[in-house]
Structures are given as C-alpha cells and as structure tokens.
Design a protein that fits this description.
With about 150 residues, this protein is mostly beta strands. It folds into two domains: about 90 residues; about 60 residues, Thrombin, subunit H (Beta Barrel). The strands form four sheets. A four-stranded antiparallel β-sheet has the order 1-2-3-4, with no helix packed on it. The protein has a four-stranded antiparallel β-sheet with strand order 8-9-10-11, with no helix packed on it. It has one helix and 13 strands; from the N terminus they run ββββαβββββββββ.
Length: about 150
Amino acid sequence: MIEPKYGEAGPFSEGLARVKVVEEEEGKVGFIDHKGQFVIPPKFNTDADFRHNSTDFSEGLASLTEGLRPTLTEEAKFVYIDKKGTIVLFTDFFYAGSFRDGMAVVYDSEMDKWGFIDKSGRVVIPVRYDLANDFSEGLAVVATLGSGGL
C-alpha cells in the first residue's frame, strides 16, 4: 500500500507512522499517514539512531531527540511533539519514552537513574530507579539494584 522508500519505518500508531528519510547523507524523522503522505515533514535529525532517538505517537504525543546534531531542538535532550509537528514539551532528560497511562519513563544520564514525568513535564515518580519500563494498566516494572542484584 505504501511504496518502500524510507530508510527505516515504525508501526502505525494513532494514525501515523514514524519514518526516516535520508537527505544529504543525514537521517531525518517525519510522520506519514496511511496513504504515505507526510503529515509531519522529516525535519528532525535522527543522528543515525532512529529506533532510540524517537518514539511512535502515544496519547497524542511522540518523543524525539536530535542526538548529537541538533537543529530544531538546540540541544540533545528529548522533546515531545504533537500531531502537527510542534514541540509542545521540552525535557532535561537524556531519554524520554512514550506516554502510557498519562506518564512517560525518563532517564537522567548524570544520575544514571530512571523515573516518570506527566504531560506537563513534571516529575511525578522520582528519578531514583536503576531500571524502569513503561506503565501498562496502572503498573510499571522498576528496580533498584543492590549489591546482590535485583
């Protein structure tokens, strides 16, 4: 249904699919509809790490970072965009995941810890875990590693 012309592609989520387009030897992230038409043009640099530097839409938002070569975000921190491609939330985190149950997992590289934010960017579960996964049905798996492991 859609011609295979993208460097990489994610699944459709909330009516849009994340795709990577290579322009002038640089990968850029955009989002297409079911007809293969760009709804959000490819304008964010992926720094060659499409799978880790961007997420699919969830709860109306997608997160991304421009990695080591920021152009639109001005620094290599994760931001959230809406379905118009507008940055609606800047974070101070090295990684910010998809929203699930109103919260998104985030990673602070300086602390080497994980926590959770809400859609306003406020930390709602402190950044203190060694491991953390997305919420699902009101629960998330987290771990604090001790000297004996998990």
